Amino acid sequence: ISESAMPETRFLLESAQDPDVGNNSLQLYSISSNEYFHVYTGRRNDGRRYAELVLDRALDREQQAGVAFSITAVDGGNPPRSGTALIHVVLVDINDNIPVFTRSLYKVPVRENISQDTLVVVVSASDLDSGTNGEIAYSIVQNSKENFETFKINPETGQIRLKKPLDYEETKTYEIDVQATDGGGLSGHCKVEVQVEDVNDNVPEVIITSLTSMLSEAAPLNTVVALFNVARDLDIGSNRVQAYSVIPENEYFSVSYGSRSNGDKYVELVLEKSLDREEQAEMDFSLTAVDGGSPARSGTTQIHIEVLDVNDNAPVFSQDRYTSQVLEDTPEGSLVLSVLATDQDTGING
Predict the structure, then answer these.
(1) Residue 134 phi/psi, 5° resolution?
(2) Is the pLDDT score of 347 beyond 70?
(3) With 90 as the cut, is the pLDDT of residue 21 above it?
(4) What domain range includes position 143?
(5) Are residues 138 and 51 in the same domain?
(6) Is the domain of 105 the same as that of 21?
(7) Which one of 17, 118, 177, 259 is most buried, by most CB atoms within 10 A?
């Protein structure tokens, strides 16, 4: 740190890592007693804690060439656990300008389907010093393993590129701390906020919650044959499910969907035309949910309906009139005539 650093100057420290969550995760940083510094514990939007070293009084390299102390990271468990590291501050003589970024915050919208090594943003800093004290190297401060695995930066140009694919459904926003360090060891910082935008990369999932697979041919019109959960689609906005349909289309069933007066959404398969088992005893079709993406994606579930018989057909003789001649001496019990009737119904109804 330059001996010309002013009191209240802040220095971002590399974050401690704690895989626990909730109160058991990292909660506080502290440092051992010293004349020059205290530590500030900050909280990011995602809840992670970070540490900044804050200068309390002016430094003088000629009086003291360095300062050493320990920093401790403590979690909120019971009992609490902690980790400690040693910090050795070396005072640099009269490199009195730090790199300054053109912006303190870069906000960048990025579609989740961009390819690996795509340029995300270019950060830029300048330093009024000359020579090696004015030469700047860029780096990403490792405030999270996820950021470090997802993005990389060119130390000379400040170009930040993608190291691995993004997934909006997994992470919607990344906060990246970027550091610009000059040849004298002074550094400035900026924040890059990468906002991941959704693309239509998820297929709707249709789930049946209730299905009457055996339906009487006497079922009245508007009978609700099946109930469905509103199709599950991890995408957002117009990329979510927009419409439902029966495929192939048939004249017997239609899909009704919308919101009830209490706000609950529904999807129903409704009987539109009277059934006749004698015309069609079974039906197979699918219910399809289609989203509004481009190109659109769809999810399908198969439906099988068996039409149950009702006694709606009378027996019919094969002839309207039967005639037979019988000899007068025909013995009792002899076959005189055979008649035949049929019934289109099934089971006991037929």
Answers:
(1) -105, 0
(2) yes
(3) no
(4) 95-199
(5) no
(6) no
(7) 177
The two three-digit tokens of residue 263, written as one number: 């706000």
- Are 36 and 46 members of one domain? yes
- Percent of the chain residues topping a pLDDT of 70: 97
Q: Residue 97 CB: number of other CB atoms within 10 A?
A: 18
Co-location of 89 and 166 in the same domain:
no
The continuous run of DSSP H or E covering 147 comes out as: helix 145-150
Amino acid symbol at 225: V
Final residue of a domain: which of 199, 230, 249? Answer: 199
- Could you tell me if 253 and 269 are in contact, meaning their C-beta atoms sit under 8 angstroms apart? yes
- pTM of the predicted protein model: 0.53
250/259 Cα distance (integer angstroms) = 25
* Residue 217 is assigned to a structural domain of this protein: yes
Q: Is 324 within a domain?
A: no
Task: Report pLDDT digits (tens) over 41-82.
Answer: 999 888 889 999 999 999 987 788 899 999 999 999 999 999
DSSP letters for 320-341: S-------TTPPTT-------E
Mean pLDDT (whole number) for 212-238: 79
CA neighbor of 35 nearest in space, from 8, 5, 59, 16? 59
